[in-house]
Design goal:
Length: 327
């Protein structure tokens, strides 16, 4: 019988709670990164319970003292990995999947709350890719660790190494591993999106045509118009960037205000994005729309606005187009 993972996070301390209806099986599907294997929030598990037993499922184990913050969990093989603030630093924490016992703990960066509000702790969910673990701290520390031991293999900083600027509430993106690269969004004039070699941390490419500041969204890998690319949302644009070389494929202006947090959702040739705090739909901003693309307002209530961008599926391939914004 398959099992359900539930976790609780608090600023006082993070606890992982595993609930199940029997023992944990080694063949459970992995969930190695933010929003799952394909970064689409979809699980491939089958045979799930249609209803819980009286009194709820059996508590398998609880792990405490993992620090405070907003990280979710990545699950790969026999490891569960998360991150949290403890004292003056934040740490990537690895637990044994079978019983929740600690495997290793590695310092990622400094602890604390960027901006106002006292929202302390890492926002990034670590990414597990084979024998490597990647994580980003709220102040921009970006590190790679050995999955087996927690040994640090390389380290970068989104501000000092890549010219990014700290978002008001800190860096929140979860790193994307694709092929031999790990990709993230430092933002800034040197190129908003950067791909690094997984093993060395060396820069493979930067998208210098795209120079928005980072918001709080994470990259989504997809194929549009036959071209593999990464979709990202900022305060000013929704963009598609070539996975091969970082070239800007398309850019759709969508002026945001404050809470640009959610990860884009791609379905077919549709890209769905949403934000909070009085967002105006694109057709009311006076900004241009990519040729052949159309915006639709899906919902607007209490300051929320969900919109959908339909990209052209025929004609000039997206890889040969460049959609630019004019103000």
């Amino acid at each position: 019988m398959q099992h359900h993972l539930r976790f609780r996070l608090s600023l006082a301390g993070l606890a992982l709670v595993i609930l199940g209806a029997g023992r944990l099986h080694a063949d459970n599907p992995d969930w190695p990164q933010f929003r799952g294997p394909q970064r689409d929030g979809k699980s491939t598990e089958t045979g799930l319970l249609k209803s819980w037993p009286v009194g709820g499922p059996k508590l398998e184990w609880t792990a405490r003292g993992l620090g405070g913050g907003y990280a979710s969990v990545a699950i790969a093989g026999d490891l569960i990995v998360t991150a949290g603030d403890r004292g003056e630093a934040n740490y990537v924490e690895a637990l044994r999947r079978s019983d929740g016992k600690p495997v290793w703990s590695a310092q990622l960066g400094k602890s604390g709350a960027p901006g106002w509000g006292g929202f302390a702790g890492p926002r990034c969910t670590p990414t597990v890719a084979g024998d490597l673990v990647f994580a980003i701290g709220q102040f921009g520390e970006f590190a790679c660790f050995e999955a087996k031991s927690g040994k640090e293999l390389w380290r970068k900083h989104l501000v000092t190494d890549f010219g990014g600027s700290l978002p008001l509430w800190g860096f929140s993106e979860s790193p994307l591993v694709d092929g031999e690269n790990v990709v993230c969004t430092p933002g800034g004039a040197q190129g908003a999106i950067v791909a690094l070699n997984q093993r060395t941390g060396a820069v493979v490419w930067r998208c210098q045509e795209f120079q928005d500041a980072a918001a709080y969204s994470s990259l989504v890998p997809t194929v549009l118009g036959g071209v593999r690319q990464y979709v990202q949302l900022t305060h000013a644009n929704v963009v598609g960037v070539s996975a091969r070389d970082g070239k800007l494929l398309w850019q759709a202006p969508r002026q945001e205000k404050t809470a640009v947090i959610t990860t884009p959702v791609v379905q077919g040739d549709l890209v769905y994005v949403t934000s909070f705090y009085g967002k105006r739909p694109p057709n009311q901003t006076g900004l241009p729309t990519p040729p052949g693309a159309t915006w639709s307002m899906l919902r607007r209530s209490m300051g929320r606005a969900a919109t959908c961008l339909k990209l052209p599926s025929r004609g000039t391939p997206l890889a040969r187009r460049r959609f630019t914004a004019t103000r």
